[in-house]
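Input (structure):
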């Protein structure tokens, strides 16, 4: 084998540089190599790495590959050693037929940068075929009056070998009448001619049998023989004559079998048997004999086998016309095969990548070559892909194309692209070939998890069980694989005093939130925190959302009675004049409920009474009033049990006990005053203020503590009898509560309320009334009185 390779950069190298989209393409001139036919598979042709001047391993690094012009791969590249090897036994006669030299063309493709080198491989012939005559026995009829020097052309032998291994000479067996000389055609073929050296005499010798030998130029030479039988005829002095020596005709390659190609005709002016002309192929190859047939009587040439322009585009047929006397004439018929568009374009993929990372710049996906075996307009091609795709199809050299991305791709917009490469020829009708390529866009972590809501509001009823599932947060990631796997976590609270770690926890996999302990609405009504969602990409991306937890109230607190105080001390006694009208305000039960909403709505009910029907309790405000007029028969002391109930489900309640003392200490003449009605309105207003004040006191723990300290500091001596409340002015200043016209009394009263600091007592005490500034308008006449009763009440909060 012989390698006359590239002489880079000195010999026959032409570089074409294409710059587009960051891809560099180079095409070089021919690199010429040769290999002998019939060598075994894997035979060494050339070391490409050395021939191209590349370092060891660079062929593999640059993805070097060999692409043949046809569909069959005759050569194999070992990218590790750089050796170019034969992929199979090469038969020159099958590859090229009689054509010499026999050349195979292929391309060498390399990436990074992308380069294409065009190379040709010559398949050298060996003498592996002997000459063969189509007819082993040939009969020549020669008239006895044929002149000396007459030349008779003989059928040539066929030798598939080419060049010097083809047929080089013809010889004939020794005789005294004939010798063989070599003739040549315009196509470079040689053929034998039989030359008459001596006049024939049928009566002396009517027949001859000669052996024609064909010799090729191999070493050693091969040969083939044919027997030439010569029959000496009586005189037939007129041979058939064709009108033309050469006829030309055309036949489309899609002509059906039996199609009439042409009709030849020869005339013979002789008569009788000597004028009967028959037609036959002369010196025809096996290919012509299998493709055409001739009617021996009419000279019509018919198609015996389908024509294929891509295999043979023309035929030269020798037709012999022979009369009955053995004289003949020869003409040539040149049949031109017309090309029809019967071959669809071919698309040969050289390299292909079905995956590309999103956000990548322009990337080469495929390199391929297109080919059409037709010719002319039928062989011209147009290559394109669908519109509105983020891909480009760029032409290269030698009908190569490059499929590449137009720019960065987004997997979240479209994870896969179906690309149809269409190759259409320009023939009539147009034929096309389509090749589908599916390109998968691999994911890059370019999307952070996104919560379904920017904020979540969760409701939890107080007194919940620990580890209760209170809600969930959810985030999705548009990426895929590990880039889309979301992990949830609690973010550090913005309020450093919020013990978030002891309140809630989150499931890192699904975002479920759990309350770690029982929540108390009265201690914590609401709290908020942030949760984070991070994916598992590299680098990881994250986002956060706000979670608000609202604690719902449960009816877990019973009403608490502020007044009258229930601390085990002496019961509080309310004084009611016997002259009181029905509806007289005796006192007011004040209670609060630590719950909220309807759980804190309170209602009051008289549960027990010493004398039923004498007193009543207003259900909504807890006011205790007389239900009828008092009489002397009514007992002086009364005990009332008032039930305070909230509106929860189930309801909770508390009871308190009142002691009422009916007294005669108020004289009847002073009970009726003109301003009784306005005083009643003022008393109602005072009642509202008192309820608000007492509720505020009960809800403010700090005030209770301060009050507790103040009571402890109070120093006084407990009076043994009902008297005046002695309280140091600097500790507990007196507060006058105006009870003008309260109930059915017509006078204006003022009570001095004092806090009693002594231990063991927590009650209001009526000490004694103080009447001053009494103005009388006359005996027996009702006058306007302004009486001030200074009473002292004391209570102690233990």
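Output (sequence):
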């Amino acid at each position: 084998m012989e390698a006359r390779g590239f002489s880079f950069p000195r010999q026959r190298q032409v570089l074409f540089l294409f710059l587009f989209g960051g891809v560099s393409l180079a095409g070089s001139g021919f690199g010429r190599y040769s290999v002998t036919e019939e060598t075994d598979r894997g035979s060494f042709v050339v070391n490409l790495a050395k021939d191209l001047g590349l370092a060891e391993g660079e062929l593999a690094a640059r993805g070097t590959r060999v692409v043949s012009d046809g569909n069959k791969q005759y050569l194999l590249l070992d990218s590790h050693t750089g050796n170019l090897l034969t992929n199979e036994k090469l038969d020159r006669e099958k590859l090229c037929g009689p054509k010499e030299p026999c050349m195979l063309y292929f391309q060498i493709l390399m990436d990074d940068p992308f380069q294409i080198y065009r190379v040709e491989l010559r398949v050298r012939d060996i003498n592996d075929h002997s000459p063969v005559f189509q007819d082993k026995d040939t009969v020549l009829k020669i008239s006895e009056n044929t002149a000396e020097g007459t030349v008779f052309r003989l059928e040539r032998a066929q030798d598939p070998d080419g060049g010097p291994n083809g047929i080089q000479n013809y010889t004939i067996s020794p005789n005294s009448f004939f010798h063989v000389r070599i003739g040549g055609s315009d196509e470079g073929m040689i053929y034998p001619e039989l030359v008459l050296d001596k006049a024939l005499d049928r009566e002396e010798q009517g027949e001859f049998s000669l052996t024609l030998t064909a010799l090729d130029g191999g070493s050693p030479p091969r040969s083939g023989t044919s027997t030439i039988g010569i029959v000496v005829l009586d005189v037939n002095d007129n041979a058939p004559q064709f009108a033309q020596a050469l006829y030309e005709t055309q036949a489309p390659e899609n002509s059906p079998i039996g199609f009439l190609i042409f009709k030849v005709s020869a005339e013979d002016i002789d008569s009788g048997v000597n004028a009967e002309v028959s037609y036959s192929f002369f010196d025809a190859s096996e290919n012509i004999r299998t493709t055409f047939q001739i009617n021996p009587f009419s000279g019509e040439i018919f198609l015996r086998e389908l024509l294929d322009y891509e295999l043979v585009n023309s035929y030269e047929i020798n037709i012999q016309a022979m009369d009955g006397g053995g004289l003949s004439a020869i003409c040539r018929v040149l049949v031109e095969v017309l090309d029809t568009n019967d071959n669809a374009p071919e698309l040969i993929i050289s390299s292909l990548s079905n995956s590309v990372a999103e956000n990548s710049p322009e990337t080469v996906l495929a390199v391929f070559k297109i080919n059409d075996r037709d010719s002319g307009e039928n062989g011209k091609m147009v290559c394109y892909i669908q519109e509105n795709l983020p891909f480009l199809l760029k032409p290269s050299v030698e009908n190569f194309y490059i499929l590449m991305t137009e720019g960065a791709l987004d997997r979240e917009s479209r994870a896969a692209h179906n690309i149809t490469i269409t190759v259409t020829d320009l023939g009539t009708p147009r034929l096309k070939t389509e090749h589908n390529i599916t390109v998968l866009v691999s994911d890059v972590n370019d999307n952070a998890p996104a919560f379904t809501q920017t904020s979540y509001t969760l409701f939890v009823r107080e007194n919940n069980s620990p580890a209760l599932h209170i809600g969930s947060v959810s985030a999705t990631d548009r990426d895929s694989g590990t880039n889309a796997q979301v992990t949830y976590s609690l973010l550090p609270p913005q309020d450093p005093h919020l013990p978030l770690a002891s309140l809630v926890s989150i499931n890192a996999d699904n975002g479920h939130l759990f309350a770690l302990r029982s929540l108390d609405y009265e201690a914590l009504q609401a709290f908020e925190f942030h949760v984070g969602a991070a994916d598992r990409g590299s680098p990881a991306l994250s986002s956060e959302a706000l979670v608000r937890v609202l604690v719902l109230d449960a009816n877990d607190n019973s009403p608490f009675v502020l007044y009258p105080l229930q601390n085990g001390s002496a019961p509080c006694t309310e004084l009611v004049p016997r002259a009181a009208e029905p509806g007289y305000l005796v006192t007011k039960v004040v209670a609060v409920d630590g719950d909220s909403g309807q759980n804190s709505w309170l209602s009051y009910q008289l549960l027990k009474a010493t004398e039923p029907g004498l007193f009543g309790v207003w259900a909504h405000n807890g006011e205790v009033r007389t239900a009828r007029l008092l009489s002397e028969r009514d007992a002086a002391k009364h005990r009332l049990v008032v039930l305070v109930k909230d509106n929860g489900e189930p309801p909770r309640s508390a009871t308190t006990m009142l002691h009422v003392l009916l007294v005669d200490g108020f004289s009847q003449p002073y009970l009726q005053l003109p301003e009784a009605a306005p005083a009643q309105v003022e008393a109602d207003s005072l009642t509202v203020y008192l309820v608000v004040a007492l509720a505020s006191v009960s809800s403010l723990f700090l005030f209770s503590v301060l009050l507790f300290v103040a009571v402890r500091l109070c120093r006084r001596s407990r009076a043994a009898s009902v008297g005046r409340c002695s309280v140091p002015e600097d500790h507990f200043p007196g507060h006058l509560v105006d009870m003008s016209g309260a109930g059915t009394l017509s006078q204006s009263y003022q009570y001095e309320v004092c806090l009693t600091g002594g231990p063991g007592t927590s009650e209001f005490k009526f000490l004694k009334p103080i009447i001053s500034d009494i103005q009388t308008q006359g005996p027996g006449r009702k006058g306007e009185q302004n009486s001030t009763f200074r009473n002292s009440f004391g209570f102690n909060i233990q």
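Notes: The helical segments are 48-52, 58-61, 92-96, 286-291, 500-503, 676-699, 701-713. Residues 47 and 83 are 4 Å apart (CA to CA).
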